């Protein structure tokens, strides 16, 4: 398995919050079942399995069947949470996700575990950098990328009640809490985590804390960067993004995924048509070389330095 | 002749008559649209008629009845057959068939459960129906309910690996409330299954995956009536391999690979309608 950095104090693996919230909801909602592909351990479902043994459907290593089975369970009145490593869930079963879940309008929750570069040294076969681009292209599928444990719980809670299909990207790379305790989470809204009028840093998932770090560095240089946290990538909450573009004139996006088709593309699709501003899209450019998740994030400039550097570059651009 | 035999013969005769009406609707629907998959529609017509008019527990007035039996047409390209039988069974007016594949019609070339009452799954890409059926069967078991799930598969689509993922799961779980019906017409889009990517020995394959297999003439309603319902207390999923003829009922279409999705000319349509008995 990946040599993800051991959990330091104040750093969280979002799979834990995911599993706890799922069990909490399952205690009062009989419709909730979990479906997995030999992934009880990697999806953190051991406690769920112990508490609700008959409500965990492990289909073995068979992702197409797994997603089809989830559609059938939804047809039978259940709310399936399909839990599997994101590269295999989204890559192997993409047609089932499109036809059996999204086009069929089934209330199923697809939970892509350990996405992005989480599998580090296991390499590009196990990296899930394409998932956001693939799933964002599918109509009527909500795509959510929580950035910390609180957002993860909120997303699980929302998805369980949605009455419609959704995809949750659940990170394993340890992240700090980024959502202020006194701020209520509206999962479908873009959250402003830091005000600023010089440049906007738009981030999702693991990149949110790094964007906040970048903003702190920029502030030391007299640059006020606004930090926007995109929890729901599709459908995208346009207003805060349009306002940020209008008020700052420069937008940097950062995501732990390919630079083609994900958050950066979603923001560019919106702004280029409604409020064009210079942009920088940060993400994973190409298949990754060998390295741990932490190494690879640095390698691709997906850290505070890289985000701050992209912001400085934009500040040189005269609109 | 015993009373039971007499009743059975009457059931079969009624189904034969209904299937002839279904074939008429299929031919008219495809003729009007100038589109469709007539060969497979005609091979599966007796199977769907037997299911919807006898085997399935359902209520056309309440298509979302939670305890209904589920029927999933995995070979979704044969939507015209499904729509025709659903209309005959009263799920929607026969006049709706006039809109088959017309702009903005609910009757798309492949079935949509959100638009057409009686449709359980949005099939079309092959190899999707059986996994969904396994999920329905697991759902019944979890719910402690006694509704049953039937999945009608094309034979060609058994070349899709997802079917065998599902077959393995159903066998492993002993889903006695699940029935797969294979429309074994031996022809896929461009050629015979056996020269394209061999399926035989097909019954042995299903048995090896833990299924109870019944092989029947897929145009013999009495045989279908007997083979389709799962046995009470069954501990294995059931596979009914229904030997059929692609284009069944229309002499110039039968066993002809080009009638997979060829559309009859007005003259051919007249002849075909006359042959199926209108």
Explain briefly what this protein structure is.
The complex is a heterodimer of chains A (319) and B (278). Helices cover 40% and strands 18% of the residues of chain A. Chain A is an alpha/beta fold and 319 residues long.
Describe the structure.
- The complex is a heterodimer of chains A (319) and B (278).
- Chain A is α/β, with parallel strands linked by helices.
- Chain A has helices at residues 14-28, 46-51, 63-75, 86-92, 94-103, 131-136, 149-161, 207-220, 238-248, 263-274, 293-299, 304-316; strands at 32-36, 56-58, 79-85, 109-113, 142-144, 166-170, 191-194, 199-203, 225-229, 232-234, 251-258, 279-284.
- Chain A has a seven-stranded mixed β-sheet with strand order 2-1-3-4-6-5-10, sandwiched between helices. In chain A, strands 7-9-8-11-12 form a five-stranded mixed β-sheet, sandwiched between helices.
- In chain A, helix 3 packs parallel to helix 5 (94-103) and helix 9 crosses helix 10 (263-274).
- Chain A is globular.
- In chain B, helix 5 links the parallel strand 2 (149-154) and strand 3 (178-184).
């Amino acid at each position: 398995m990946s040599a993800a950095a051991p959990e330091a104090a104040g750093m969280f693996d979002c799979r834990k919050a995911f599993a706890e919230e799922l069990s909490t909801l399952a205690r009062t909602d009989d419709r909730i079942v979990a479906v997995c592909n030999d992934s009880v351990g990697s999806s953190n479902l051991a406690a769920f399995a112990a508490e609700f043994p008959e409500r965990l459907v492990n289909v073995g290593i068979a992702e197409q069947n797994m997603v089809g089975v989830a559609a059938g369970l939804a047809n039978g009145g259940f709310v399936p949470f399909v839990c599997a490593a994101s590269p295999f869930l989204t890559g192997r079963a993409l047609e089932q996700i499109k036809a059996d879940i999204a086009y069929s309008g089934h209330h199923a929750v697809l939970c892509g575990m350990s996405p992005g570069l989480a599998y580090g040294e296991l390499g590009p076969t196990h990296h899930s950098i394409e998932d956001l681009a693939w799933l964002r292209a599918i109509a009527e599928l909500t795509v959510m990328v929580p950035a910390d444990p609180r957002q993860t719980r909120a997303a699980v809670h929302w998805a369980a009640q949605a009455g419609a299909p959704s995809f949750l990207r659940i990170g394993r790379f340890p992240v700090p809490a980024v959502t202020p305790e006194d701020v209520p989470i509206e999962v479908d809204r873009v959250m402003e985590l830091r005000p600023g009028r010089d440049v906007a840093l738009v981030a999702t998932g693991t990149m949110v804390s790094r964007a906040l770090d970048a903003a702190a560095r920029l502030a030391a240089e007299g640059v006020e960067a606004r930090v926007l946290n995109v929890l729901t990538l599709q459908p995208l909450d346009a207003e805060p993004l349009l306002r940020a573009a209008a008020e700052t004139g420069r937008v940097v996006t950062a995501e732990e995924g390919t630079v083609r088709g994900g958050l950066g593309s979603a923001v560019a699709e919106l702004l280029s048509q409604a409020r064009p501003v210079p942009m920088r899209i940060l993400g994973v450019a190409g298949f990754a070389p060998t390295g741990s998740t932490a190494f690879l994030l640095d390698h691709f400039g997906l850290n505070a330095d890289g985000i701050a550097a992209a912001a400085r570059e934009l500040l040189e651009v005269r609109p | 002749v015993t009373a039971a035999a007499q009743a059975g013969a009457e059931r079969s005769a009624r189904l034969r008559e209904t299937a002839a009406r279904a074939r008429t609707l299929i031919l008219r629907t495809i003729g009007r649209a100038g589109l469709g998959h007539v060969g497979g529609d005609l091979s599966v017509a007796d199977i769907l008629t037997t299911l919807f008019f006898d085997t399935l527990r359902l209520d056309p007035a309440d298509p979302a009845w939670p305890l209904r039996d589920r029927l999933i047409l995995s070979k979704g390209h044969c939507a015209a057959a499904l729509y025709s039988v659903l209309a005959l069974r009263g799920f929607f007016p026969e006049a709706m068939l006039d809109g088959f594949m017309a702009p903005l019609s609910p009757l798309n070339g492949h079935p949509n459960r959100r638009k057409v009452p009686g449709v359980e799954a949005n099939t079309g890409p092959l190899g999707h129906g059986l996994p969904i059926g396994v999920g329905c069967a697991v759902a019944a078991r979890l719910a402690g309910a006694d509704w049953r799930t039937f999945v009608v598969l094309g034979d060609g689509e058994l070349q899709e690996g997802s079917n065998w993922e599902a077959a393995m799961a159903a066998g492993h779980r002993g889903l006695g409330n699940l029935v797969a019906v294979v429309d074994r017409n031996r022809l896929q889009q461009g050629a015979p299954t056996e020269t394209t990517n061999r399926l035989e020995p097909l019954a042995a394959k299903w048995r090896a995956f833990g299924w109870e297999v019944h092989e029947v003439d897929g145009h013999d309603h009495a045989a279908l009536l007997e083979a389709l319902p799962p046995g009470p207390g069954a501990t294995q999923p059931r596979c009914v391999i229904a030997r059929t003829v692609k284009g069944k009922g229309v002499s110039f279409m039968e066993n002809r690979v080009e009638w997979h999705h060829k559309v009859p000319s007005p003259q051919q349509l007249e002849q075909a309608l006359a042959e199926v008995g209108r």
